[in-house]
């Protein structure tokens, strides 16, 4: 109609492409109100298993005890237990009841320069890789050592057919342009870089933190939004000290566990957070942890484990 006023178009909402962005949170009461009864039971037991309150081989509360605790019917309890059994967290023991299953997690040594694929294959795990992105782009603000343009490589790592880790790697153009997309599906990145460029990953730093799975990353990894993930970030340099990569790897905490080997060595100046492990600004040993005497090394390892576990619990409580 002539003279009719037009409403301004609404701004389109686009999902963030940064998996580290925190998902929107709602009040805990609203979450509980919408959660089915069987899911509340399975979530409670799942949390106790992940927090080590229930260890492999421990007997779960009986069906009648769970009925009384949650004021639900036996069928609801059995549905919750069936969910946990399908996830591989519990199993039915004839004549005993339901027990916590042995942990099916795989371990990654974060103080080794070798990547996740190489380590898992050495342990006999069946791994596959899907290349989701391989293209040139402007680097984000936190990537400063690789040049004005970089190659962005995003991969999804599966173990025994199940998503286990999402990897985002930034590479110098000279390295990225030499990579073959098909070769990346069955060869580790470090091996391929050495093969096609002659540059070998020799040093670097690593940082570990616990984060919540935010959209759209949670869908890629096959977990619920807000589920706890282990994030490993770092950079690597070659035998000449030149930067090779900067990366972030989000691991499913129910599939992958981190190991840290204690090795004797003098404390370094600088630290992992600054990324300057030596006075000249070059990087120290991968891992980024300054170690002193044996008692100090043990205290640092215990503190690191307790800090990571506390972060995972905080993420789970915030869901």
TrEMBL record:
Gene3D superfamilies: Chorismate lyase-like (3.40.1410.10), Winged helix-like DNA-binding domain superfamily/Winged helix DNA-binding domain (1.10.10.10). Residues 1-38, 263-292 are annotated as: Disordered. Residues 35-103 form the HTH gntR-type domain. CDD domains: WHTH_GntR. InterPro entries: Bact_HTH_transcr_reg, Chorismate_lyase_/UTRA_dom_sf, Tscrpt_reg_HTH_GntR, UTRA, WH-like_DNA-bd_sf, WH_DNA-bd_sf. Residues 14-29 have a biased composition (Basic and acidic residues). One of its GO terms (biological process) is negative regulation of DNA-templated transcription. Keywords: DNA-binding, Transcription, Transcription regulation. GO terms for molecular function: DNA binding; DNA-binding transcription factor activity. Residues 1-13 have a biased composition (Basic residues). Pfam families: GntR, UTRA. This is GntR family transcriptional regulator.
């Amino acid at each position: 109609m002539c003279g009719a006023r037009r409403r301004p178009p609404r701004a389109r909402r686009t999902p963030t492409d940064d998996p580290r962005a925190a998902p929107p949170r709602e009040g805990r009461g609203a979450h509980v109100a919408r959660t089915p009864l069987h899911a509340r039971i399975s979530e409670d037991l799942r949390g106790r298993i992940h927090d080590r309150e229930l260890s492999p081989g421990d007997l779960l509360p009986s069906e009648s005890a769970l009925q009384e605790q949650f004021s639900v019917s036996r069928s609801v309890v059995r549905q919750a237990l069936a969910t946990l059994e399908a996830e591989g967290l519990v199993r039915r023991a004839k004549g005993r009841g339901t027990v916590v299953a042995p942990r099916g997690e795989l371990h990654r040594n974060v103080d080794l320069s070798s990547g996740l694929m190489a380590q898992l294959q050495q342990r006999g795990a069946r791994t596959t890789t899907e290349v989701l992105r391989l293209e040139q782009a402007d680097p984000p603000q936190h990537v400063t050592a690789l040049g004005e343009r970089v190659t962005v490589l995003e991969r999804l790592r599966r173990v025994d057919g199940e998503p286990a880790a999402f990897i985002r790697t930034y590479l110098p153009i000279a390295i990225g342009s030499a990579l073959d997309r098909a070769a990346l599906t069955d060869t580790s990145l470090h091996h391929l870089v050495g093969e096609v460029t002659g540059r070998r990953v020799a040093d670097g730093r690593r940082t570990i933190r616990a984060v919540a799975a935010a959209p759209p990353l949670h869908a890629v990894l096959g977990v619920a939004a807000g589920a706890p993930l282990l994030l490993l970030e770092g950079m690597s340099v070659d035998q000449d000290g030149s930067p090779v990569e900067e990366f972030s790897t989000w691991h499913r905490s129910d599939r992958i566990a981190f190991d840290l080997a204690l090795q004797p060595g003098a404390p370094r100046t600088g630290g992992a957070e600054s990324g300057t492990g030596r006075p000249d600004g070059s990087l120290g040993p991968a891992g980024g942890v300054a170690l002193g005497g044996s008692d100090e090394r043990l205290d640092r390892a215990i503190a690191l484990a307790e800090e990571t576990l506390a972060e995972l619990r905080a993420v789970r409580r915030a869901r």
